[in-house]
Amino acid sequence: MMRVLIVGGSGYVGSLIVPGLAEAGHLVRVLDPVEPAGDVAVEWACGSALDPAALSSALAGVDAVVFTALGPRGADGDFDVRSSYETNVAAVHLTLAAAGAARVRRAVLISSISVFANVPTPVTDRLLDERSVPDSADAYGLVKRLAETVAEAAAAVHQLTVSALRIAWPTTEAAWPLWALPIFDSPAEIRCLDGTLLPSLAASDLASAVLAALDRSDPGFEAFHIVGDDGSGRCWSTAKARDLLGWQPRRR
Predict the structure, then answer these.
(1) Where residue 148 falls among pLDDT bands split at 50, 70, 90?
(2) Strands (E), the chain
(3) Which of 5, 195, 202, 204 is surrounded by the most beta carbons within 10 Å?
(4) For residue 1, with 0-12 CB atoms within 10 Å meaning exposed, 13-18 middle and 19 or more buried, which class applies?
(5) Is the pLDDT of residue 104 over 70?
(6) Cα 77 off chain centre by
(7) Using alpha carbons only, what angle is made at residue 239 by residues 158 and 131, rounded to the nearest 5 degrees?
(8) How many angstroms separate the CA atoms of 15 and 38, rounded?
């Protein structure tokens, strides 16, 4: 059993992870300005990862930290550039530095497959694995790339074990294999250019990936592709997660 701090645990991605960690027997503490919803019993630390005092207090006594925070979306649905840099880059830097100071040695960074460019070829149709060089230049993809750079540096400086999980289309169990987001009127389909339907990442598979990453103990930074799979082999390779974390998606 671990005591795990989830930064941004009241948000959409955090809310998909919290139940799985609690069901696995871990004690969950959430650092977020917004109180967590749902029926899962968690400890709420009201505050922001941009506040060093709140971070220090929230990290007291924990064994690991999971960073799930996202910058808010604007009225047009896109991420606000300034707040995205603050939340996805500065807050990651502060969180991992504070973790190092608190001797919290294990961290999981929720990254995104959006570190790869979606143009000119859609990311759904690119052959990618963890050896592929991230090349996204849009605001969201770029801050996710920078967050991974920060995490890799922090792992070396603070002697941390940091696992960056590049997730794609996380969704609720009920909506799978479609992709549900709070801003959507209804769950959306993800398709390749040839019309092939790609499955989203079920909450249970996301949570099990986080659990597997929390068990990782070898020091240093590693990135893993954590994506849904329909068993056809059409999706991106999750071989690295399988080999190093013992993780594979179960929803098929």
Answers:
(1) very high
(2) 3-7, 27-32, 43-46, 64-67, 106-112, 161-167, 170-171, 190-191, 197-198, 201-202, 220-226
(3) 5
(4) exposed
(5) yes
(6) 20
(7) 60
(8) 8
